[in-house]
């Protein structure tokens, strides 16, 4: 045996850790935009929309271009939507509601859903649009 032995110093290999973190980052970047409330609709543009209140957690009613109705992400018929909204209003009378309608949906249909929500008694119904200035 030799008198001078080299002592081994352990080193941590961080490459696998960095790889895993980068993969998780990419996954979250892809999934996060899909977490938006309601169905995916192409919103109409408006010149001066009201500022969005980030403190509220509204219930989202969506009208897709094909005429389907959604309560948050749950697809319903129009009658079932009205029943669900009535139950929601009884449980939380002051709950804010946001109506998202695809820009291809006829105004009469959007107005009909808006009127149905007003008749149920929701105090404030917002129409979600995109800001034309930011396009």
TrEMBL record:
Q: How does it sit in the membrane?
A: Single-pass membrane protein; Single-pass type II membrane protein
A Gene Ontology cellular component where this protein is annotated is: plasma membrane
Q: Where in the cell is it found?
A: Cell membrane
Any single GO BP term? protein transport
Gene Ontology MF term list? transmembrane transporter activity
Q: What is its main location?
A: membrane
So which domain of life are we looking at?
Bacteria
Question: Which residue ranges traverse the bilayer?
Answer: 12-31
Q: Which family does it belong to?
A: Belongs to the ExbD/TolR family.
Protein's name in the database = Biopolymer transporter ExbD
Q: Which organism is it from?
A: Corallococcus exercitus
């Amino acid at each position: 045996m030799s008198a001078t032995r080299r002592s081994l110093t352990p080193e941590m290999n961080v490459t696998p850790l960095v790889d895993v973190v980068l993969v998780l980052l990419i996954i979250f970047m892809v999934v996060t935009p899909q977490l938006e409330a309601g169905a995916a609709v192409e919103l109409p543009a408006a010149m001066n929309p009201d500022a969005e209140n980030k403190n509220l957690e509204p219930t989202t009613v969506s009208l897709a271009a094909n005429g389907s109705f959604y309560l948050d992400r749950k697809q319903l018929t129009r009658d079932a939507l009205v029943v669900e909204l009535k139950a929601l209003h009884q449980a939380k009378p002051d709950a804010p509601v946001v109506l998202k309608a695809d820009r291809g949906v006829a105004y009469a249909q959007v107005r009909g859903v808006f009127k149905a929500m007003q008749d149920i008694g929701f105090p404030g119904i917002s129409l979600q649009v995109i800001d034309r200035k930011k396009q």
